[in-house]
Amino acid sequence: MNPINRDMTVPDLLRNVVENIHPETHPFLIHYYEGKWREISYRTAFEHIHAVSAYLLSIGLKKGDRAALLLENGPDYVYFDQGIQQIGVVNVSIYPTLPEADTEYILNDSGARTIITNTPFLFRKIIKIANNCPSLIRIIPTFDGYGKYLNGLALQAGVIPFNEVLKTGKSLTKQYANDITSAREGILISDISTLIYTSGTTGTPKGVMLTHANLTKNVSACLDQIVEVDQHETFLSFLPLSHVFERTATYHVCMATGAKIAFAQSIDLLAKNMVDVKPTVICAVPRLLEKIHDKAIKNGTESGLAKAKIFKWALKKGKQYRERKVANKAPGPLLNAQFRLAKKLVFSKIQDKTGGKLKFMISGGGALPKNVGEFFGDIGIKILEGYGLTETSPVVAVTEFNRQVYGTVGRILPGITVGIQDTDTNQIYTQQTHEHFDPSYDSEEGEIIIKGHCVMKGYWNKPEETKHVIDKDGWFHTGDIGKFYKGNLKITDRLKNMLVNAYGKNIYPTPVENTYLKSKRIEQIFLIGDGREYITAIIVPQQELLKETFNLKDSFFEQINPFIEDIAIIDWIEHDIKQLSNELAKFERIRSFKVKRKPFRIDTGELTPTLKTKRRVIEKLYAKAIEELYG
């Protein structure tokens, strides 16, 4: 049953759990501390949350003020976020991977007076730019030993450790108890809960204003769609909570249902943490799922003839079994027996590496290649694909647990309307809602436009930008191209990504790039060709496979030349390019390419925090190399 039964604010979610779902002594958070996994109860969490609120009220923070969080995932994020949320202060979460210039811009644009940070690296980033941020008066580090980074620095902002905030706040909690209650009860669902800055693939970061209603109604709609989530789940959290996908699909869902949140130690230790924590749900991005897929295929096919044969046979039987189930046909006794054997010999070993209790994974933040989704379905791991944007709180559509259509992002959530609009004539081909769902419905392709409770209040301090994306009829224009397929929403590409070649042919890069990414030799690919006679690309090879194939040392990837000019390596990549080009129309095929030595990265400005390539940045950075491709 959906626990969100009234117009709740974000702090109401957590209070509802201890009032109606779990006692205060029940575990809420799990983290790795001093060599072991430790559980934190709701009671302990509330002690820290109230301490933060009391301290901030005592120094004058009030409803509508902004406080910034530059934090890696962990309990501190929950304490500070909930501590500010229940007194009406707005959460300004900053991606830990953002360059200093973007971080400085966000602090100045939001007018945040306080920032909390939890690693030496992030603390050093802040103190470098703090004096360029006039509104910033307080920096709160959560770790010991921060003082050594302040030697010789004359900061305008004061520095106070988080343990001092908690100590002082706990001594003030009783004194400020009525003020905390009054502040919490004074929050309207139309008030801004958070500013999340979206850099997009071009332009200056924009602060997306999401209200309490945006966030809680989005969680409620998600739980109406995926009724299988309940208070017994354990979510493993590793995607940044600064991103709205993880904040909604893990953090807010757990706060609403009473599920536990386990914080992974790091992305590098994720595989080990899955075995330790034994999660039932994990939110992931497509790139991680692709890497798991690639590793499983490699391990299954390269470890001896007999084992490879068994692995391929098991995948074949898994595919047959899944396809029979999808078609609502009985697998039959022979296929049932074969699937059980495939599960025992192969699939259970892969499932054990996720902890063995996984109910499903949720993929968001980008398009999951169809073959990757099908692979997980074949081995018995369910992947639910979702779609949304920061501006839509974020979830617009998500796969239903018992209705998988690979290559789509699922059914529209309750309370949301999605239209498909012709990009030339602005004619709206169709409007679909949750209630309109028809599993046989297909539509024409166009820009995806959205109405409903999920649409943001607007961009902070940018009324003209807001008018540009939310039209006079209330439609939010996503800039994504898509259509409906079998009743589910299917994303084709980004409108701004579209390339128009010299002959007027429209080329959407994403499906073309995904075709070439089927190669195990290719890690990243960036398509070029707008206004040009033919398509070219910058390609990043799969580094580990490249090192293994050509016996390369790490120093090879540190050379000054950003591009690899070794003919043998270029030919190695070209082998797969030629084979995969046969799957594409002639005008979509890559005619020439450069092999990039290092991956595209966030800190160099080449990628957004959600790992989308920034077209203008890349084209400017590598303008000379691109011209050489057309020389």
Write the layout of secondary structure elements.
Layout lengths: L9 H11 L6 E7 L2 E6 H17 L7 E5 L4 H11 L4 E4 L6 H11 L3 E4 L2 H10 L8 E4 L16 E2 L2 H24 L6 E7 L7 E6 H14 L8 E4 L6 H14 L2 E4 L6 H8 L3 E4 L1 H16 L3 H22 L6 H20 L7 E4 L6 H9 L4 E6 L6 E4 L12 E2 L3 E6 L6 E6 L12 E7 L5 E2 L3 H7 L6 E10 L2 E7 L4 E2 L5 E2 L1 H8 L5 E7 L6 E7 L1 H8 L12 E2 L2 H15 L8 E7 L18 H7 L1 H7 L2
Parallel strand pairs: 1-11, 3-4, 3-5, 4-8, 5-6, 6-7, 10-11, 10-12, 12-13, 13-14, 26-28
Antiparallel strand pairs: 1-2, 8-9, 9-20, 14-15, 15-16, 17-18, 17-19, 19-21, 21-22, 23-24, 25-26, 27-28
Helix pairs in contact: 1-8, 2-3, 2-6, 4-5, 7-8, 11-12, 11-13
Can you walk me through this structure?
The chain is globular. The chain has a 9-stranded mixed beta sheet, with helices on both faces. The chain has an 8-stranded mixed beta sheet with strand order 7-6-5-3-4-8-9-20, with helices on both faces. The mean pLDDT is 94. The chain has 3 domains: 11-187, 3-Layer(aba) Sandwich (Rossmann fold), CATH 3.40.50; 284-356 and 358-494, ANL, N-terminal domain (Rossmann fold, 3-Layer(aba) Sandwich), CATH 3.40.50; 499-629, ANL, C-terminal domain (GMP Synthetase, Chain A, domain 3), CATH 3.30.300.30. The protein starts with 9 loop residues before the first helix and ends with a helix. By secondary structure, the protein is of the alpha/beta class. Strand 13, helix 13 (370-378) and strand 14 form a beta-alpha-beta unit. The protein is built from 19 helices and 28 strands.
Text of the CATH class of the largest domain: Alpha Beta
Distance between the termini: 63 Å
| Radius of gyration, taken over Cα atoms and rounded to an integer in Å | 25 Å
Averaged pLDDT: 94
Task: Kindly report the name of the CATH homologous superfamily of the largest domain.
Answer: ANL, N-terminal domain
Q: Residue share in helices?
A: 25-40%
| Widest beta sheet: strand line-up | 2-1-11-10-12-13-14-15-16
Low-confidence regions = none
* Proportion in β-strands: 15-25%
Shape: globular
| Separate helix tally | 19
What CATH architecture of the largest domain would you give? 3-Layer(aba) Sandwich
Largest sheet: 9 strands, mixed
CATH fold-level assignment of the largest domain: Rossmann fold
Structural class: alpha/beta
Pfam families: AMP-binding, AMP-binding_C_3
InterPro entries: AMP-binding_CS, AMP-dep_synth/lig_dom, ANL_N_sf
Domain AMP-dependent synthetase/ligase: 26-460
Keywords: ATP-binding, Nucleotide-binding
